[in-house]
Amino acid sequence: MSWDIGDSRGLAHEIGHSLSLNHSNEFHNTNSCKYTIMSQAGLDPRNYLQPTEILKAHKNLRETNLIQFATEDSFLGILF
Question: Which CA distances in Å does 47 have to 2, 16, 28, 56?
Fold first, then answer.
């Protein structure tokens, strides 16, 4: 599979997919939030990850052995 990463934002976007994040969520339709790293529009800032998406990523990390690579301070005070 060939990915067009191009920059760190593209890499963050693709890592988001690895953490089961999508181009949309329960609060935004596909690509409607131009600030989220999961936006597909190349000219969008893509410099934000919503707290709900962080929680979703941590949930997916907990369900695998990848949680060992997440630091406690990355949980932002969220108790599981």
Answer: 23, 13, 16, 18
Supply the DSSP symbol for 69.
G
Backbone angles phi, psi at 53, to 5 degrees: -75, -35
Interval 52-63: pLDDT, tens: 888 888 888 878
Ranked by mean pLDDT, the top range of 1-5, 47-51, 70-74 is 47-51
How far, in Å, CA of 11 to CA of 5, rounded?
Answer: 5
Rounded CA-CA distance 6/75 in Å is: 28
Contact 11/21 with Cβ under 8 angstroms? Answer: no
Give the residue extent of every domain in the chain: 8-75
